[in-house]
UniProtKB/TrEMBL annotation:
Protein name in UniProt: Biopolymer transporter ExbD
A matching Pfam family: ExbD
Key words, A-Z: Cell membrane, Membrane, Protein transport, Transmembrane, Transmembrane helix, Transport
Family statement: Belongs to the ExbD/TolR family.
Record's subcellular location: Cell membrane
PANTHER family in UniProt: BIOPOLYMER TRANSPORT PROTEIN EXBD-RELATED, EXBD MEMBRANE COMPONENT OF PMF-DRIVEN MACROMOLECULE IMPORT SYSTEM
Length: 170
């Protein structure tokens, strides 16, 4: 009987070069297309149960009252500064920003504002008012920067609106 000699077969090496090439291309593409979550945190001052001291009561307080049909910009010393009616179902944030810039030019050291939304105010409207009164885009030396208006925002309840006109209490 004749013996059969078998050659010892060695196993072929696994070629992972094409897979590595795919990963080198695919990973950067996926990372570039990834949407990163962006969370903003805004410091707010909520009213406390304490009453105001005489010094705090005499200090100028700028108020933005959000009613269903209008925005009312007022202060505690002179009353209503500007009433901004809704146009086509939307608040006029451009006019609000212009009014806030005018107030800031008169009292440049003032940094706080009180926003008083009514119960009917939507969350998006409240956030839009907060963004509008906090800062605006300005061009400085050829580049666009965020200029500060009133970054310290306090929240309160809107006073009850009288029929025909806005009633603002201090």
């Amino acid at each position: 009987m004749r013996r059969k000699h078998r050659r010892l077969q060695s196993e072929a090496d696994l070629d992972i070069t094409p897979f590595m090439n795919l990963m080198i291309v695919l990973v950067p593409v996926l990372l570039l297309n990834m949407v990163f979550a962006h969370t903003s945190v805004l410091e707010l001052n909520f009213p406390t149960g304490e009453s105001l001291s005489a010094e705090q009561a005499e200090e100028l307080q700028i108020q933005v009252v959000i009613y269903d049909g209008q925005l009312v910009v007022a202060d505690n010393q002179g009353g209503v500064i500007k009433t901004i009616p809704r146009r086509e179902g939307e608040y006029d944030f451009v006019l609000l920003k212009d009014v806030m810039k005018e107030i800031k030019s008169r009292v440049p050291d003032k940094k706080d504002v009180i926003i008083m939304p009514s119960r009917e105010t939507s969350y998006q409207s409240l956030v839009s008012v907060m963004d509008t009164v906090r800062s605006y885009e300005a061009v400085v030396a050829g580049s666009v920067v965020e200029a500060e208006l009133f970054p310290e925002i306090s929240l309160g309840d809107a006073p009850v609106q009288a029929t025909g006109s806005a009633e603002v209490s201090s």
